[in-house]
Amino acid sequence: MRTRVFILLALLLSGAVWLRAADVIPPPPTRYFNDYALTVKPETADALNRQLEDFEKQTGTQLLVAIFPKLQTETDLADYTHRMFAVWRPGQEGKNNGAVLFVFVQDHKMRIETGRGLEGALPDARCRQIIGDVIAPKFRAGDYDGGLQEGVAAMIAAVQGEDYKGTGRTAYQQQHPGGQRSTGGGIPAGFLVLIFLAIFLFVIFVNRRQSGPRGGMYSGGGFSPIFLPFGGGGGGGGSWSSGGGSSSSSSDDGGGFFSSGGGDSGGGGGASGDW
Amino acid sequence: MNNKIIGLGCVGVLLLGVLILVATGVGGYNKLVPARENLDRSWGNVQSSYQRRLDLIPNLVKTVEGAANFEKSTLTEVINARANATKVTVDMSHAPTDPAQLQQFQQAQQQLSSGLSRLLAVSERYPELKANQNFRDLQAQIEGTENRINVARNDFNVAAQHYNTLRSTFPTVIIANFTGFQERPYFQSAAGADTAPSVNFGSFGASPTPAPSH
């Protein structure tokens, strides 16, 4: 009886997730440069991650890059990235000096979303120039590494003029004074997905055994988009771990990891573009 | 003697009741004040986003006029809508209390929104404009401002909802009515905005996956 109740609850819960599955807001990234779509070389990703981390140490400004395979939303791009920004909250508390470069590879769309504290240094027109004139031509030529390197450099150059002072330590290091991080880059989020996957498989398994052929209506690929947001049923590949982050870059001082400094939800500034 | 005690007891219970009411009322009042301040602040953001758009338009009009034989009707529509929107003003420092006033404001701005989006759509047909750096910057600024307006409006509606809920719960509602905390109107979603957006399946999966560069 108890298991039945549990199954019912699990099904209800997964049903609730199902309804929202078309609009996925990923959890805050664990790194500065997050290549969820595996588009750039690991070395490039690591180097850019370091560069962005150093930039936070120097200026306190949190610039992030997030590359996704595709858009997971029913609303428009700007609304979607703003809602992600509102969850991730890059930037320091009270300064709101954060910005995110979002790239959606299959959609050929990208957007820079700026925090309120960077709207002066990265005004919409400047964002458009970085996207349209710096990154897009490289992307069009298939050079994702180069486009992202130059895009990040352009964003840093634009913000450098702003008078923000860093503390020499990242928000992550301040929040984790012990320094050591027990797990490698991006694993906690990936681990969560694995747990979900295990529950999902368990539910299917139990369901099949208990109700025989009738269980068939819940099995099959119908559920896979819920638990594998990007995997598309292909299995395994859909975790939130950022592909670019090899564990080699995680040193003992908690280096290489991003954590929000407490910026606000942003005002919707920035610019979009395609390639 | 007995009557006296009962009488005193009644008065005591009554006093206690009044005291509890006053205490909760004061507590409610103390929550209402910051909620209203927050609401007014979000209104300020709404107003400044709309103002930002109004400020950008003269520049845009000037740039577009420079393009050879640009469609006149689209331009005049934007110019008129802007003039109309500047006339409908609402106090910047306080969120409106009159739903009709807010609706009027919203209508004027909505007219401008549709005029602007038409102008930007039409401008796609002018390669001369699309190649113009100044125009492209302005376009990015306008688009950014539209986003800011959406965000500010959403934030305002959340603040208004929080305030209205606080205001209309018992016993705060008694204090609210005595101290002039009125119910505040929301932004209504624009006509057509509540219908589900059409999904273009062509953009999912159909586009070729770019080869990873490594």
Gyration radius of chain B, to the nearest Å?
27 Å
Q: Mean pLDDT of chain A, rounded to whole units?
A: 78
Strand content range of chain B: under 5%
**Treating each run of at least 4 consecutive H or I residues as one helix, how many helices of chain A?**
8
Shape, per Cα inertia axes of chain B: rod-shaped
Quaternary class: heterodimer
Dominant shape of chain A: globular
Overall pLDDT confidence of chain B: 83
Topology, number of strands of chain B: 0
The counted number of beta strands of chain A is 5
Text of the CATH class of the largest domain in chain A? Alpha Beta
Structural class of chain A: alpha/beta
**Largest interface, per-chain counts?**
A-B, 34 and 29 residues
Beta content of chain A comes to: 5-15%
Q: What is the makeup of the main sheet of chain B?
A: none
Biggest sheet features of chain A: 5 strands, mixed
The CATH architecture designation of the largest domain in chain A is Roll
Straight-line N-to-C gap of chain A: 56 Å
Provide an overview of this structure.
The complex is a heterodimer of chains A (275) and B (214). Helix content of chain A is 43%, strand content 11%. By secondary structure, chain A is of the alpha/beta class. Chain A has a five-stranded mixed sheet with strand order 1-2-3-4-5, sandwiched between helices. In chain A, helix 3 (77-88) links the parallel strand 2 (62-68) and strand 3. In chain A, helix 2 runs parallel beside helix 5 (144-160) and helix 4 (124-140) packs antiparallel against helix 5. Chain B has one domain (2-183). Chain B is mainly α and 214 residues long. Chain B has six helices and no strands. Chain B is rod-shaped. Chain B has helices at residues 2-66, 72-87, 99-123, 127-130, 133-167, 172-178. Classes of the chains: A alpha/beta (275), B mainly alpha (214). The interface between A and B is medium-sized, with 34 and 29 residues.
